[in-house]
Amino acid sequence: MTANLNNYGFFVTSMRRLVVTTKENAALLPDVASEVEVLETALTAAEDAKSRQDSHMGSKQLATQEMKKALETAQNAALQIQNAAKFKLGPRNEKLVAFQVKPLRKHGPRKPAQLKAQEEALRQQEVELQQQENELLKKKVELLKKKDEPAAAS
Q1: Which of 19, 119, 144, 146 yields a CA-CA distance of 20 to 30 A from 61?
Q2: Which pLDDT tens digit goes with each residue over 90-137?
Q3: Residue 126: half-sphere exposure toward Cβ, Cα within 13 Å
Q4: What's the predicted TM-score (pTM) here?
């Protein structure tokens, strides 16, 4: 998870959502109770520091430092929870999306294979166009010969 610690609102909201998801799926992840507790504690500390930061301009620097430290702790706890979910559920399980983790999914064919098929189709079209052009030239030559025959006969 790549969280931007500078976007406080988004970060805290996503961490709260992760706590709720983890609690809803407690049966799947019984081993992460301590990480959830650390995450909740860190989020509470960050919210307290943010409220102090907002209300006390004089101690803003200290509150900012405390808030950043609490957010980093929350981020580490969230990563542990997400890794535990990935470990328990498997890397391809779609349930990982609820924990804000992208599951491994099948990918389409690689670009070189697609390019090769497109190049082959293009070559085939070029051959067909060349054949059509040759046929048109033959017809044109025949028409020119027919025009010249009556003029030569007179």
Answers
A1: 19
A2: 999 999 999 999 999 887 766 777 788 888 999 999 999 999 999 999
A3: 6
A4: 0.52
The Cα 105–Cα 89 span in angstroms is 14
Read off the pLDDT of residues 23-46 as tens digits, 9 standing for 90 and up: 888 888 888 888 889 999 999 988
Look-up of token digits 């020119």:
144
